[in-house]
């Protein structure tokens, strides 16, 4: 589902930001998305009725939220620094999800359970990694790139995560790489390269 973010972003960018992409760029974008879809269908992804209910709606909402984030980053990028916008996003997320967690623990009658993970070193290390590298660094770089290259162009790079996950799985977890991985990864990379090489100067 996340592979659809570039398509949603392309549509929203053309409507709200008046970003123009050539027919060839659209082809390469769809090619990249097709690579991700091909890999997951080849792995036997299940899209049965039990999946395509609330979970499907939530995933679709996540895709739309990502696309809107790309559009807002581009539209506000000329007025605010990338780091400032990243700080606001992180702060809103911090307040929202901590309130949800506190509310959940309160309703369960065990509010103190909220503080238990704070005494565990693996949890704290995970928070530091997610907070610094996965949020501040990547968020700032993403906004910086969107402002300068355009929402449609940058969003397609998200599909590269699938390729990196395959490589990481092979190198770190010693997972096998099958032919469909290679075919899908080739489509993804070709789509990303084509989308950016065809970008109007």
UniProtKB/TrEMBL annotation:
SUPFAM superfamilies found in the cross-reference section: Multidrug resistance efflux transporter EmrE
Which residue intervals define the domain EamA in the entry? Answer: 54-196
User: Where primarily located?
Assistant: membrane
TM spans (from-to): 23-41, 53-73, 85-107, 127-147, 154-172, 178-198
Where does it live in the cell?
Cell membrane
Q: Tell me a GO cellular component.
A: plasma membrane
Membrane topology, as annotated, equals: Multi-pass membrane protein
Tell me the domain of life.
Bacteria
Q: Per the record's keyword annotation, is Transmembrane helix included, yes or no?
A: yes
Q: Name one Pfam family in it.
A: EamA
Q: Looking at the keywords, is Transmembrane present?
A: yes
InterPro entries linked = AA-Vitamin_Transporters, EamA_dom, EmrE-like
Sorted alphabetically, the keyword list is: Cell membrane, Membrane, Transmembrane, Transmembrane helix
The family database entries (PANTHER family) matched by this protein are listed as: INNER MEMBRANE TRANSPORTER, S-ADENOSYLMETHIONINE_S-ADENOSYLHOMOCYSTEINE TRANSPORTER
Q: Which family does it belong to?
A: Belongs to the EamA transporter family.
Q: What is this protein called?
A: EamA-like transporter family protein
The organism's taxonomy opens as:
Bacteria, Bacillati, Bacillota, Bacilli, Lactobacillales
């Amino acid at each position: 589902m996340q592979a659809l973010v570039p398509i949603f972003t392309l549509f929203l960018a053309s409507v709200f930001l008046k970003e123009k992409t050539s027919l060839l760029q659209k082809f390469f974008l769809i090619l990249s998305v097709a690579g991700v879809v091909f890999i997951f269908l080849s792995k036997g992804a299940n899209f049965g009725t039990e999946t395509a209910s609330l979970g499907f709606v939530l995933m679709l909402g996540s895709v739309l939220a990502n696309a809107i984030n790309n559009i807002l980053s581009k539209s506000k990028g000329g007025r605010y620094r990338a780091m400032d916008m990243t700080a606001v996003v992180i702060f809103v997320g911090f307040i929202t999800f901590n309130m949800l967690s506190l509310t959940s623990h309160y309703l369960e009658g065990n509010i103190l359970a909220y503080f238990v993970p704070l005494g565990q070193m693996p949890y704290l290390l995970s928070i530091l990694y997610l907070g610094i590298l996965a949020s501040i660094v990547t968020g700032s770089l993403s906004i910086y790139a969107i402002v300068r290259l355009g929402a449609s162009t940058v969003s397609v790079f998200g599909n590269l995560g699938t390729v990196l996950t395959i490589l990481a799985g092979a190198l770190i977890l010693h997972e096998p790489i099958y032919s469909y991985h290679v075919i899908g990864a080739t489509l993804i990379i070709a789509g990303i390269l084509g989308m950016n090489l065809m970008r109007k100067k």
